Amino acid sequence: MRLLVFLALSISAINLAHAFPLATNSDHINFLDYSAGAERKQAFIAYLKPIIEEKNQSLFHDRQKLIHLSQKSKLNIREQRWLKHISQKYNNDSFNSDNSSHWSVLLDKVDIIPVTLALAQSAKESGWGTSRFASTGNNYFGQWCYKAGCGLVPKKRSHGASHEVARYESVKESVVAYVNNLNTNPAYKILRDIRKQLRKADKIISGYRLASGLLHYSERGQVYVEEIQTLIRNIESDALKTSG
Fold first, then answer.
1. How far, in Å, CA of 41 to CA of 29, rounded?
2. Among 145, 221, 230, 244, which is most exposed with the fewest C-beta within 10 angstroms?
3. From the centroid of its chain, how far is CA 75?
4. Max alpha carbon distance in the chain (Å)?
5. How far apart are CA 229 and CA 81, in angstroms?
6. How many Cα atoms occupy the beta-carbon half-sphere of 104 within 13 Å?
7. How many alpha carbons fall within 13 Å on the CB side of residue 136?
8. Mean pLDDT of the chain
9. Is-contact 114 17, C-beta < 8 A?
10. What is the pLDDT of residue 13?
């Protein structure tokens, strides 16, 4: 028996699209060209928001397709190949289409990351786009890599540490890596569980609520979570003021 799932796409309670005008989508934007404060924040949000939304749209379509396939009694060869690809992409190599729990686990991972959450984390990790890692390596989320030469060496890296801050070819690549990290890394299972419960209750997929699942994103734990939640509230408040 296949799993029947209902989908509701609720990226944010606040419509940021009308609150912030779009900036030029260029990987060479310099946020230091904008005055610190409201001007820089608005430019940053206008720049990052459409990239995050594009990734969420891709997730939305993949999720819809998964739900459709989960309801079919038999899959054709093309569908089987796509399902194998998507299950491996989300670290579900042992996926069995005849096992309803496998569908549930996969659908828990193939889902959106609220725009407000991604904006808040990128603002925090990149200093509103002004950090060396953002301007030099297109890394807006502070993500690490562990192969020598894979990124930029932090100036304050602890003695004996070998990690680097990952370098990306584009900001879009950075966003994709961040979303995939939250959707697949065991460290963020709590975040995915919160999202699952919100869907089950037919509630908005709230960035503020999902932020509670970020305890392992930073060594600062709960303090970091509260900082992200404060940023989310500020972004939502600014959006209301701008749109109003």
1. 13
2. 244
3. 30
4. 58
5. 40
6. 12
7. 10
8. 87
9. no
10. 40
Nearest 5°: phi and psi at 151?
-160, -145
| Count of all residues that appear for the chain in the document | 244
Q: What is the mean pLDDT of the segment spanning 136-140?
A: 93
- The C-alpha angle with vertex 18 and arms to 15 and 21, in degrees rounded to 5, equals 130
How much is the pLDDT for 21? 47
Q: Are 155 and 171 in contact (CB under 8 A)?
A: no
Cα–Cα distance for residue pair 141/47, rounded to 1 Å: 15
pLDDT for residue 129 is more than 80: yes
Cα pseudo-dihedral 52, 106, 6, 208, rounded to 10 = -40
At which residue do the structure tokens 């990952």 appear?
A: 166
Contact, 45 vs 23, CB < 8 A? no
Cα 30 to Cα 32: distance, rounded to the nearest angstrom: 5
